[in-house]
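INFO  loader      accepted 1 record
INFO  loader      residues=86
INFO  predictor   begin
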Amino acid sequence: MCAQLDEILSSKARVKVLRVILEKGEVNISQVIKETKLNHKTVHKHVNYLINAGLVEEVRVGRLRLLRPNWLNPKTRRLEEFFSFF
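INFO  predictor   done
INFO  writer      dumping tokens
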């Protein structure tokens, strides 16, 4: 977990993306782009990383790609608690 946590927190952009998803609960890519003020390619890259890490899950509704925290993963809850201090 430590190596993975270092990877997650080593990128300011990735932290921004994760915070938006944790705060909003369920968002689409456009909302994440708007909130973080990052470009589409960057957000897409970090979302894919967070999905592969098991912290975020993706639900597709037609063409809509909804992102939400993976609350079944205890690491997600711990990161939410960590971010709430800042």
